Amino acid sequence: MSEKFQKMYYDENPDAAHDLHELETVLLGQKMTFTTDAGVFSKKAIDFGSQVLLNAVHFPENSTLLDVGCGYGPMGLSLAKVQGVTATLIDVNLRALALAEKNAVKNGVTADIFQSNLYTNVSGRFDNIVSNPPIRAGKDVVHGVISGAYEHLNEQGTLTIVIQKKQGAPSAKNKMTEVFGNCEVISKEKGYFILQSIKI
After folding, report:
1. Rounded to 5 degrees, what are φ and ψ at 54?
2. How far are the Cα atoms of 33, 47, 93, 140 from residue 73, in angstroms, in the given order?
3. How far apart are CA 15 and CA 38, in angstroms?
4. Nearest Cα residue to 172 out of 180, 163, 181, 182
5. N or C: more exposed end of the chain, with fewer CB within 10 A?
6. Which residues are the signal sequence here (predicted)?
7. pTM beyond 0.90
8. What structural domains does the chain harbor?
9. Residue 168 host element (H or E)
10. 48: burial class by Cβ within 10 Å (0-12, 13-18, 19+)?
């Protein structure tokens, strides 16, 4: 697999030839259907880390949620569908965003979906932020997800991310503790750590 291909899912305009897939899955006990494509993250199945994160969180109905690096939408859309959050989904990848918009309609979910490189186009604050950060984009991007979250959370708001131990969970935990003053491992499974900080 070429380095160029590995990087496509966090490029603004992936140039991989289209290869559409329909995924039928169950997330949070709810049947969901997603259209995926080449050039987006985890096109052939819902990423296991995203599933571990979803199973670890429960947000109040009508609370506001920001999904950073949403891809084609599995986390933000399923949380909106099942837990009734008011979801905003952002990604730098325009192909992924187009899919997320289609998947919102396909699953009967209303969400605010737009392009943003990290938090550059995000205004306002949210009750909760979730992210399955693009590890291959590098440590600076992962830490950017963490450090930028603080200013975009309401008081008592949470940042929850999933990251594999071997891909930098200890470093991410240290960064979250540095930014928020706290970080808890709320779940872990098969090497995936779910890290959560609270804005206090």
Report:
1. -55, -40
2. 11, 11, 12, 23
3. 9
4. 163
5. N
6. none
7. yes
8. 47-199 (3.40.50.150)
9. none
10. middle
